[in-house]
Design brief:
The protein contains twelve helices and 14 strands. It is globular and about 65 Å long.
């Protein structure tokens, strides 16, 4: 009888130990983005923003009694590398993957993620192809069609630009094709004209001089250039060398400090349509800027801010599920309003977010907001 009692006590103790270990085991979050190469200004800043959020949440006690652990992979800016990276994160026990940072990479991994029941929470995937879909994809950035319409209206009504040349990077066609199509539709509806539409591959090392000459010969007053910061900077430098007087209009993608470093004076005056501005005077944003710069040594961009907010969203949803993967997709769309660093936000039933559009330019080597939402 005494032996049986001892056995029961030992079993209960072992069960308690297992339960304690489970509670103490970190909750793994994955991050997947381009950490090297042409688009790494998004991936590195995105990883850093997520890292800062995880560190601060852990310092405050973690989530559901457990610490968070962030595992980051370089998705290589290729579909194969993205798939391999996501598989490794899921095999390591990630309850969700923060990523990817470009629309083409997200589209490449989505079928695999759906088949494995994996949640993707993207800071910067803006293709409207994924809007209003009931799936396992969630995002912190609105789709790019709203920026395209706002940019078309601003170009025609405020800058008197009536003829444009449309150019996009075919290596991220899920983003570039949708943005350029939405711009063209709105621009033409307002009476604007499209002189030509072209694509290039950033991986193939474009002939920027030839592209500038083609745009100039088309008679366009401006180029709608949907590409990375480094590629936009290269086009701008080629434009300056050719002494071509032509505006450059862009979506959010190249709106990072990389364009200032790579482009110098040649990128002055570029206009970006974006849902983010550095000229955000709210205490929350200013505090985030200060903490990020103190941690990483440079200022955050939109990818860093959205990635930070992605971790906030996941942390709140995991509190709802008690730290479990089960039910996390429903929790993500039922968190209510979250106090983000950019501003308050929430996701709709499809996992999409709504934010206003800013028009931003470069003036004396700094980003400057020229129009706020609603103006």
């Amino acid at each position: 009888m005494r032996k049986r009692a001892i056995l029961i006590v030992m079993l209960l103790a072992a069960g308690a130990l297992v339960l304690t270990c489970q509670r103490q085991r970190p909750l793994v979050l994955g991050f997947a983005g381009q950490l090297t190469g042409t688009f790494s200004d998004l991936g590195v800043q995105g990883r850093n923003g997520a890292t800062l959020a995880v560190e601060e949440i852990n310092q405050a006690g973690g989530v559901a009694g457990r610490q968070l652990k962030l595992l980051a992979v370089d998705d290589g800016n290729t579909p194969d590398a993205a798939l391999a990276g996501d598989e490794s994160l899921l095999d390591a026990g990630a309850v969700a993957i923060i990523g990817h940072m470009t629309s083409s990479q997200t589209m490449a991994v989505l079928p695999m993620a759906e088949s494995r029941g994996a949640l993707l929470v993207s800071p910067t995937t803006a293709t409207p192809t994924l809007t209003a879909k009931k799936d396992l994809f969630f995002r912190l950035i609105p789709d790019n069609s709203s920026w395209a319409a706002a940019l078309a209206e601003f170009a025609l009504k405020s800058r008197r630009i009536e003829r444009v040349y449309v150019l996009g990077d075919s290596d991220n066609t899920a983003y570039t094709a949708s943005f350029n199509k939405a711009f063209v539709q709105r621009f033409q509806a307002l009476g604007g004209m499209i002189s030509a539409a072209r694509e290039f591959s950033s991986k193939a090392r474009p002939d920027w001089k030839a592209l500038v000459e083609d745009a100039a010969s088309s008679g366009a007053q401006a180029v709608v250039l949907t590409a990375s910061a480094r590629d936009v900077a290269e086009f701008a430098k080629a434009r300056a060398l050719a002494r071509v007087d032509m505006h450059i209009l862009c979506p959010t993608w190249p709106y990072t400090r990389e364009i200032l470093v790579a482009g110098g004076e040649s990128v002055e005056g570029i206009i970006f349509a974006t849902s983010y501005t550095e000229e955000n005077d709210t205490p929350r944003f200013k505090s985030f800027q200060h903490r990020y710069q103190a941690r990483f040594g440079w200022e955050p961009n939109f990818a860093a801010a959205y990635s930070y907010e992605a971790v906030l969203l996941l942390a709140k949803a995991l509190e709802i599920t008690g730290g479990k993967r089960r039910g996390l997709e429903d929790a993500l769309t039922s968190t209510g309003t979250i106090q983000g660093v950019i501003g308050d936000f929430s996701l709709d039933q499809y996992g999409d977010v709504s934010r206003g559009t800013f028009l931003v330019t470069i003036e004396q080597g700094r980003f400057k907001t020229v129009r706020k939402p609603g103006e």
